């Protein structure tokens, strides 16, 4: 499913903004700067924004997939009974029955009968316009389903963004602590070769 570049740029900008808030807040906490409440607030805002975007994307995904299922299951094919539309004039009966037959072909790809001006059944013959309309309908169904799936994965992505940023923000602190522990363990280790002989 292809989306306009403007949409992807907007998603990328929002993700970077959320990550920047989290990383900046974590770095302020690590630096033990004053007003740490501001750093905590920045981290909380990052999580809240990503959670809200995730919830919105989940809702959009659910609604879009429901719509896609509706498109994939249109009204059943219409097979007209011999006494259908007897209250219409011959012209109206033929016109309306052709509309029903055309709609059935576009939705299902099935050729059904319609009434001609004499009131006789005739099999509807699809036109190039009908076939083009059906092809467009099928493409639209596929695009709608793909959009719903994409919104679902986007919702998962919004949840992950702040936690990836948190991992990135604390990584230098972990490396620093790991290096300090390594130096301390090396300093406490006995010298190689043991004590010198007397």
Provide a descriptive summary of the structure in words:
- By secondary structure, the protein is mainly alpha-helical.
- It has one domain (5-174).
- The protein is 72% helix and 3% strand.
- It has 4 helices and 2 strands; from the N terminus they run αααββα.
- A two-stranded antiparallel sheet has the order 1-2.
- β1 (113-115) and β2 form a beta hairpin.
- α1 packs antiparallel against α2, α2 packs antiparallel against α4 (128-188) and α3 packs parallel to α4 (128-188).
- It is rod-shaped, with a radius of gyration of 33 Å.
- The mean pLDDT is 84.
Structural class: mainly alpha
Strand order of the largest sheet: 1-2
- How many H/I helical runs? 4
Rg on CA atoms, Å: 33 Å
Can you tell me the residue ranges where pLDDT is under 50 for at least 5 consecutive residues? none
The total tally of domains equals: 1
Mean pLDDT: 84
Which descriptors would you attach to this protein?
198 residues; 4 helices; mainly alpha; two-stranded antiparallel sheet
Topology:
Elements: H1 5-30, H2 36-72, H3 90-108, E1 113-115, E2 121-123, H4 128-188
Antiparallel strand pairs: 1-2
Short description:
This protein is mainly alpha-helical. The protein contains four helices and two strands.
């Amino acid at each position: 499913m292809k989306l306009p570049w403007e949409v992807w740029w907007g998603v990328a900008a929002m993700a970077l903004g959320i990550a920047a808030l989290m990383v900046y807040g974590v770095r302020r906490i690590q630096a033990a700067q004053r007003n740490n409440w501001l750093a905590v607030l920045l981290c909380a805002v990052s999580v809240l924004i990503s959670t809200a975007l995730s919830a919105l994307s989940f809702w959009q995904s659910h609604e879009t997939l429901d719509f896609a299922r509706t498109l994939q299951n249109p009204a059943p094919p219409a097979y007209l009974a011999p006494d259908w539309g007897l209250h219409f004039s011959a012209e109206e009966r033929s016109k309306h029955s052709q509309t029903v037959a055309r709609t059935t072909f576009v939705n299902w790809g099935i050729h059904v009968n319609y009434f001609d001006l004499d009131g006789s059944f005739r099999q509807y013959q699809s036109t190039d316009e009908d076939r083009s309309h059906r092809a467009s309908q099928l493409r639209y169904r596929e695009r709608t389903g793909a959009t719903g799936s994409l919104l679902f994965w986007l919702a998962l992505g919004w949840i992950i963004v702040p936690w990836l940023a948190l991992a990135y923000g604390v990584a230098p602190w972990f490396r620093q602590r790991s290096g300090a522990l390594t130096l301390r363990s090396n300093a406490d280790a006995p010298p190689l070769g043991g004590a010198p002989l007397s």
